[in-house]
Structure to design on (385 residues):
């Protein structure tokens, strides 16, 4: 069963998605970190990464294709990494340009957060962003994330030094924004 | 101009002088001894996925050394007293994410703390990063309960730029990690470059 929101489904990556991922990754507008450059990724690279995934009962990351329900199209990808089980995870999201401003990113982010807090039982979710990408920070803030650290001039993007922003969302902050949900996890 | 190693304080007297060198498997006993010192609990700056609270067995310490020796985008160095050859700590620079903004950490055996060794090591790391790499922002990440380390970093010019909330659990409560950074111009203005090797 895919994870489902109002606008999107999050489902596992499929081989047919790889060329879509390649195109997303090769769009400078969706890349914040120099480590992910240059924008010359090829489909075989993605295929290799896809094939390298192995079955595990202890995955530390999850990667999902965002599918727009109404359009029936791939809209982006959303992931979590650095999972410390039952404690924390770091999320990331890339949405295709044609879906910017449609609510897809927020819906996908909310679906992933719900999964992380309700199913994986994490206590905090983090996100790294760049001050050169205010849309990413604003998107996080719409889900209740707070800017908790701002490392000065820590990255270089589009010709200018930018700050690295660390934003985070505590479990109780998430549930306070979702009165329709009950947090049954005992606090410390 | 005489050749000077960026990894030793050769201008100091031999009793004070340090050498930073790679770890070797033979360092395991000395490393295990101080890593398991109770006052270092939770602030050992071990590789990701290594346990930071429980005592470490010799075999686990061996794995730590092995992981450190495999570091490709950074340095994991043993802090050794030059005169005695004693291992008294370890230090790390990591630019795994971006050489523009590496992080540093310094751990000194409690038996050798408050003797200026930590300051020497940090000065060497900063002189290396700013003298030999394109680093612009150097950061350090310190648990909010580790007040001596916070004061130490501030003394060396680092400024708090925020914190990662709920970074861990200690004594039944969550704690934050304070993020501190130091920009190259700040380090230069603070006189950091004057004694760089």
């Amino acid at each position: 069963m895919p994870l489902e929101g109002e606008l999107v489904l999050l489902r596992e990556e499929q081989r047919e998605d790889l060329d879509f991922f390649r195109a997303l990754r090769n769009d400078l507008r969706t890349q914040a970190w120099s480590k992910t450059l240059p924008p010359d990724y090829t489909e075989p690279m993605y295929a290799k990464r896809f094939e390298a995934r192995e079955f595990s009962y202890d995955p530390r990351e999850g990667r999902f294709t965002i599918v727009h329900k109404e359009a029936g199209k791939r809209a982006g990808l959303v992931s979590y990494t650095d999972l410390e089980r039952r404690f924390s995870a770091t999320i990331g999201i890339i949405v295709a340009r044609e879906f910017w401003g449609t609510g897809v990113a927020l819906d996908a982010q909310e679906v992933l957060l719900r999964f992380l807090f309700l199913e994986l039982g994490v206590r905090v979710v983090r996100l790294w962003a760049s001050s050169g990408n205010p849309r990413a920070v604003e998107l996080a803030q719409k889900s209740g994330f707070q800017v908790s650290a701002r490392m000065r001039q820590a990255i270089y993007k589009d010709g200018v030094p930018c700050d690295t922003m660390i934003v985070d969302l505590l479990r109780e902050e998430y549930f306070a924004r979702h009165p329709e949900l009950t947090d049954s996890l005992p606090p410390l | 101009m005489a050749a000077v190693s960026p990894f030793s304080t050769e201008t100091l007297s031999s009793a004070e002088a340090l050498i930073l060198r790679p770890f070797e498997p033979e360092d395991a006993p000395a490393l295990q001894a101080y890593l398991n010192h109770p006052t270092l609990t939770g602030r050992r700056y071990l590789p990701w996925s290594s346990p930071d609270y429980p005592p470490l067995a010799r075999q686990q310490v061996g794995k730590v050394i092995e992981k450190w020796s495999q570091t490709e985008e950074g340095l994991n160095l043993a802090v050794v007293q030059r005169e005695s050859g004693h291992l008294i700590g370890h230090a790390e620079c990591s630019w795994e994410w971006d050489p523009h903004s590496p992080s540093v950490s310094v751990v000194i055996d409690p038996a050798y703390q408050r003797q200026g060794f930590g300051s020497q090591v940090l000065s060497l790391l900063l002189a290396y990063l700013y003298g030999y790499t394109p680093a612009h922002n150097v950061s350090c990440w310190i648990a909010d309960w580790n007040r001596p380390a916070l004061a130490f970093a501030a003394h060396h010019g680092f400024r708090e730029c925020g914190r990662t909330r709920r970074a861990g659990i200690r004594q039944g409560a969550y704690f934050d990690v304070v993020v501190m950074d130091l920009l190259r111009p700040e380090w230069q203005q603070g006189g950091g470059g004057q004694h760089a090797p």
Notes: The beta strands of chain B are 18-22, 74-81, 87-94, 103-108, 137-143, 159-170, 173-183. DSSP finds five helices and seven strands in chain B. The mean pLDDT of chain B is 91. Chain B has one domain: 18-195.
